[in-house]
Amino acid sequence: MKRLRAFFYVQHLLGIGHLARASRIAAALADDGFDITVVTGGPPIAGFPGQGVKSVTLPPVTSGDNGFSGLVDLQGKPIDDDFKKRRSEMLLQAFRDCRPDIVIVEAFPFGRRQMRFELLPLLETIEATSPRPLLATSVRDILQERVKPGRNEETVDLINRHFDLVMVHGDPAFTTIDKTFPLAGAITAEVTYTGLVGAPPSPAAAERFDILVSVGGGAAGRRLVSSTLAAARIANGWKWCLITGPNLPKDEFDVIACDATPGLSIFRFREDFASLLTGARLSVSQAGYNTVCDVLRAGCRSLLVPFAAGGETEQTVRALMLEELGLATVLTENDLTPDGLAQAIEQALAGPTPSAHRLDLEGARHSAQILRERYRTWSLKMGSGFGKEHDQTDDGS
To answer: Where are the beta strands (DSSP E) in 131-206?
Structure first.
């Protein structure tokens, strides 16, 4: 019988968090026997979306600033209607070539409204396809608060008109979607919780650091980078590691790396980041979804400096909730100075060992199981017969 085909759209704009989480889920789908195609539309990042999946790359766009106010190409030029049309046509062709049983759209319509120019035509094409694939949205557990009137209502309308499943990548023992999306009760599509999408457990790395500072993708962490460089000079009795993120421009990284303080090792990216965490005395990071999952998996002490520029609320909410559970300490961006960072590190190291937790970190594996089961029941409900349309060869012919 033909493997289920899954078509996974993900657009990263500023950091790499959306792409990293989607890549973990895609890998789990591949491990579960899915034929998975991942469509990416952001700047290329080495190692993503990963091995074992097919990949389609749209002409890349990124955010014009930290406030996600506009889309630009990799040269910083605002994209025009011709650019948008070309991307939309490529996306629709990729969908037709894949002929998926399941379509997964990351974030939208809860986020990524900037991509409506290509996602609304995709939704319309899905509706017109026979047999129509199951349509799921893949969304993190804590959402950005929407302050503009009508935005939440628009989201609910799109979900109820087009989507069959809302996969919330969180543990309801930690938080539920209604905490940051007030109209959750109006959603008529099925809402299910997968657990947090953590990476698999990692063995301890041979290298050990006292302070492991990571800045996610690096596009929005310059202040944490500069504060770390200065704090390492103030408190140079520790062994430091700074991972600036692959999105920090290379010329900026080269300047930083040439001016490193003794005892401070600087990298743009470490594939063994999760392993480094298991041997670190303290992790210092922003409060992005994936980094927090890695820290929770490692069980190390954590100092979180949540990203809050441009009215962003998601990381602050996550960080404060973890602090309340005894799983992290928090330093706000307003208090992020070299002296403030050094003092917060000292306090975190002197504080109690992180509380034990039972949060579900197997969200990638659970996502694959949920999609397989939901497709089975959905296809029977739709009268497709579930194996009938899969009488095809594994090579896609």
So the answer is: 134-140, 165-169, 190-193
